[in-house]
Amino acid sequence: MMDKNALELYFICGSSDTDEHLPAVVEKALDAGITLFQLREKGSRSLTGDELVETASEIKKLCDSYEVPFIINDDYELAEQIEADGVHLGQDDIRVQDLPPYFNDKIVGLSVGNAKELASSNLKKVSYIGTGPVYATPSKADAGKAITPKGLADMRRLIGDKPMVAIGGITPDNYMACLENGADGICVISAIANAPDIRDAVHRFL
Q1: Catalytic site residues?
Q2: Are the CB atoms for 188 and 198 separated by under 8 Å?
Q3: Which residue ranges make up the annotated binding site?
Q4: Mean pLDDT of residues grouped by 10 in the chain (206 residues)?
Q5: What is the pTM of this model?
Q6: Class of 4-205 per CATH?
Q7: What does R_g of the chain's alpha carbons equal in angstroms?
């Protein structure tokens, strides 16, 4: 069972989410106290090839130095290549049960937005579930309709004790409602990546 405390403040970021050098942004967030980091390379400015491998490897070293787990979004081959701590999968990615043996003792996250997706998901190897979007979000074009904190509470009842992290439109003004409705932690993209002061942004969530 995954340590739920690692989900407290889960930062997701990729090259398209910031105008700064990505590893520098990650290091600032790590130094300020994030508890988990996911590299999510999507969008027009996403890295590929050797540049992606080099950047992911640099971020892995940073996360290791702060003893913070490092997750790769979707790209399980990259995650295995750089020896990341795990992978996060969406409903349209490789099925959890089809992941290579490398992930048998790694963190495996799965996005589950509603009861229908939950019913069709094999959770045997899933370490935690990402649920949302809780609120409307500009960070993910394919995020779907907001489920609201009530939807989060409904999902908690269905999921049971498995670690669950809330995602989607979460800010310092609304994150407590996520925790009060069953989330073990929160996932944040733009509220940290686009903040004028990353340290201050992280501290406002902690």
Answers
A1: 40, 111, 140
A2: no
A3: 38-42, 73-74, 93, 111, 137-140, 169, 189-190
A4: 92 96 98 98 92 98 98 98 98 96 97 95 96 84 81 96 96 97 97 96 96
A5: 0.96
A6: alpha beta
A7: 16
